[in-house]
Amino acid sequence: MQENSPEIIKVIGEEGEEIFMKLQEIITVEDKDYALLSIVEEDTLPTSDNDDDEIVIMRMIKTDDDCTFEVIEDDDEFNMVASAITDGDEFEEE
Predict the structure, then answer these.
(1) Domain count, the chain
(2) pLDDT tens track, the chain, 94 positions
(3) I need a labelling partner for 31 at 20 to 30 A (CA). Which of 6, 43, 62, 80 fits?
(4) 2 lies in a domain?
(5) Contact indicator for 6, 20 with CB cutoff of 8 Å
């Protein structure tokens, strides 16, 4: 992958469908990693770079050789992460 190319990941939706997402940023809040992702259309891969895309926040679970993404279902956890993103000074960038 080229150095300036966006990192595109494939996630499986609730109904088993493949969804392609661009990794915008990884942040850490209270020792947990969260990914800021935007959905990209398959026909625009890998060049999609629309800054107006809706951002999706997902929890990252890292293992030795893999990384999975989970939906944040707890409202308090989601609000804490969203607040850290908007405040900008309550999280560490990775």
Answers:
(1) 1
(2) 445 566 888 888 888 888 889 999 999 999 999 999 998 876 555 555 555 568 899 999 988 888 888 889 999 999 999 999 888 644 444 4
(3) 6
(4) no
(5) no
**For residue 37, is it within any domain?**
yes
Range of the domain at 22: 7-93
Is residue 1 included in any domain, yes or no?
no
Do the Cβ atoms of 91 and 83 come closer than 8 Å? no
Please indicate, yes or no, whether the overall pTM of this predicted structure exceeds 0.85: no
Residue ranges of the alpha helices (H) in the chain?
Answer: 75-87
**For residue 39, is it within any domain?**
yes
Whole-angstrom distance, CA of residue 91 vs CA of residue 32: 10
Q: How many residues does the structure list for the chain?
A: 94
